[in-house]
Design a protein that fits this description.
By secondary structure, the protein is an alpha+beta fold. The chain folds into 2 domains: about 1-40, no CATH class; about 60-185. It is built from 6 helices and 11 strands. It has helices at about 25-40, 90-100, 125-145, 160-165, 175-185, 210-220; strands at about 1-5, 10-15, 60-70, 75-85, 85-90, 105-110, 110-115, 120-125, 145, 150-155, 170-175. The strands form 3 sheets. Strands 3, 4, 5, 9, 10 and 11 form a 6-stranded mixed β-sheet that branches. Strands 6-7-8 form a 3-stranded antiparallel β-sheet. The protein has a two-stranded antiparallel sheet with strand order 1-2. Strand 4 (about 75-85) and strand 5 (about 85-90) form a beta hairpin. The protein is globular. Mean pLDDT is about 75; it is low at about 220-228.
Length: about 230
């Protein structure tokens, strides 16, 4: 982009702005959509080349998660999203949003989160679904290991989170007999009634997601006392 200040006689100067990197397309889109109208309202004149503009994804399909058994005591989650008819990893998009401050820092227009892919293309995703997905994924990413293919490998203790993911994503079970049987133990579990917290009780903050997982895990594994 070139900005030139002129008077009646001739040009007084020119300044060139360049956005580069993965977020270049997203930043240009924000500039054209938000900043340029402001400049024009105070008298600036704009000329936009016919070939200018960030590349945008025209077609976004379904998101899904593929679940598989991993090493003893664990399972893997591999997230995908259909972009222009091709299934691509969803996890890099979620990591990108989390690294920039999560849903609260994301740019949301008309109920759509506007973010960028690794190749620089701009993509719009439903804000409500992404908000709920990031709330689940934050804890899972912290607890997970990664495979070379980009899947998350988690301990069985995180299995109740699969129930939350089923509400948001199409779920596919691949060679997952063990983890599927384990997750089924949590289905239909009654909710634990809330208990008032004494005013004198203090502890370090624990996320709501962690509390749900701990409660579900406790229901599935009864504690045996000595001598019983």
């Amino acid at each position: 982009m070139q900005m030139r200040v002129t008077d009646k006689a001739a040009a007084k100067g020119r300044r060139v702005y360049v956005f580069s990197g993965r977020e270049a397309g997203e930043r240009w889109q924000r500039f054209v959509g938000e900043r340029l109208p402001t400049l024009e309202s105070i008298g600036w004149r704009s000329e936009i080349g016919h070939d200018f503009g960030p590349r945008q994804v025209d077609q976004v399909g379904a998101c899904d998660v593929r679940i598989a058994d991993a090493a003893a005591g664990g399972f893997s989650l591999e997230f995908g999203i259909e972009i222009e008819g091709v299934r691509q990893p969803l996890l890099p998009i979620l990591n990108h949003l989390l690294a920039r401050g999560g849903i609260d820092a994301a740019r949301i227009v008309d109920g759509q989160v506007i973010t960028s892919l690794e190749d620089g293309r701009v993509v719009k995703l439903p804000a409500d679904r992404i908000r709920r997905l990031l709330a689940i994924m934050g804890d899972l990413i912290e607890a997970a290991q990664r495979t070379a293919e980009g899947a998350l490998v988690l301990p069985d203790a995180e299995a109740p989170a699969v129930l939350d993911l089923e509400d948001l994503l199409a779920t596919r079970w691949d060679n997952a007999a063990a983890i599927r049987a384990y997750v089924d133990r949590f289905r239909g579990q009654a909710e634990i009634a809330p208990v008032p917290v004494p005013a004198t009780f203090t502890t370090a903050p624990i996320s709501a997601a962690r509390c749900r997982l701990a409660a579900a895990f406790a229901r599935a594994r009864p504690v045996r006392l000595p001598g019983r």
